[in-house]
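=== RUN LOG ===
request id: a7f3
mode: sequence -> structure
chains: 1
length: 517
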Amino acid sequence: MSDRDLPDKIDICCGGHISPPCIRLKAGCLSMIYEDGSIRYISVAGNEIIRMIYSAVRDRQWLTINPVISEEKIESHSDSFNIEYRCNYVSGGISFSAFYKIEGKSDNSLIFSFEGEALSTFEKCRIGFCVLHPVEGCSGKPCIITHSDGNPETNIFPVEISPDQPFTDIKSMNWKVGGSECSLSFSGDIFETEDQRNWTDASYKTYCTPLSLPRPATIRQGEKISQRIELKLLTLDSTGGHEKEDIFVSINNSVSSVLPFIGIGRSTRPSPLTEDEFRILRNLRFDHYRADLYLFKAGWKQEADLASYEGVALNYPLELAIFFDENYPAQLNEFIEWMTMRMPVISVVSLFHRSETELPDKLIETIASILRVALPDIKMACGTNANFAQINRQPPASANTDYICYSIHPQEHASDNTTIVENLQSQVYTVSSARRFAQGKGIWISPVNIRRRFNANVENYESQITSDSFPTQADSRLMSVFGGCWAAGSVKYLCEAGVSGITFFETVGERYNSGQL
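=== RESULT ===
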């Protein structure tokens, strides 16, 4: 099917999540899609220039406030368009309203602007535009950044995942895609660029308000904010790119890969596995069963005993994620005592801290050395229970463990179906970059989850669940064909990247609460 055969509006429903209509638009030679207040996939001659332009309101804990769109007007022509709409952002004590305009012109340009007003006094980490740049087509390519003082500087879109902002103090940016030269100019705030692959997003993001400024910042009732972004196609590749009209899918049975160890995580619901769950999971023949043990909490041994019992009943070795605090000597001794008494079959033990996103290297060395003496055959991992960003900023240097570990999920910045699919590719980028500091260790991705388990900006592990009903921690798409395909895609990408192990999180718990197991 070619682009010209597709309808002007497309609605998609996956796992109960209905995607808003996608509307195809043109601005001269630029083609793009409008969806739910955002512009996606700005392309010229078959080359993607911009992955997405959107606006966001993020609260004091970096949680994104979902807007309600009203007063939407769309006027589309063969080579131009005008869109207007209002967004109301309301959550807790936050109330912010903004009027947006998007103008696509026949001269190969696009203007996206808004005028907003705070209807209450609240704290925010960000209000305003974000521009996503595709990794393919930009990675390793030069970009001329004009700073707020008018001085230009040539930088490079990073190849490996950058832990720091590659571009700062941006007034405008110029770069080439294929043979076409593009320009973005910004007004209303100071912009900078981060590498979103740190959070398994398949893009670089240019956003407003530098992270070097104090945050959260207070916005007073009645305060007005306005911003404007202008995209221009300065030169058009005359050598030849063409719009991609057809997509072909083929299966090559001659290509094979060695599967990593693939396991599942124990549900955080309070109740143990049921007989039906045991029966189903036993037949699936996973390689391991992850259990999180908070050694600083009273009662962790009861949780450990239950996990050990379930692992034996499933015939799965345990992956133990153990969390320490400042009383780690006593906690480590208790853990070794429990291990010696119970003698569970262990695949790997991952070392984490209660409040630090990663254990300090000196602490890793101390704990790992003691464990090696007490449990000489044990395999250990160090890294983070959070995102790749955490270890990319402070890579573990200890050579006394077997694996580098971190977790993956696709919804740090957006939760729509399209973004979740796009972000599968970024799983590979994290593995490639992790090899830079892995010192030859294996890479253990645990857990892989379709939904974010906790906010790594304020905590380092999941909140305690006190009830078997916890819909806020379950994503219904996991039980749909969409979720199954996403999980299969994760296995495919991580397998090709050559990781040692993968753990999918709370497969049982999410199905249990949906009533579908």
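=== NOTES ===
The radius of gyration is 25 Å.
The chain has two domains: 3-235, 261-514.
=== END ===
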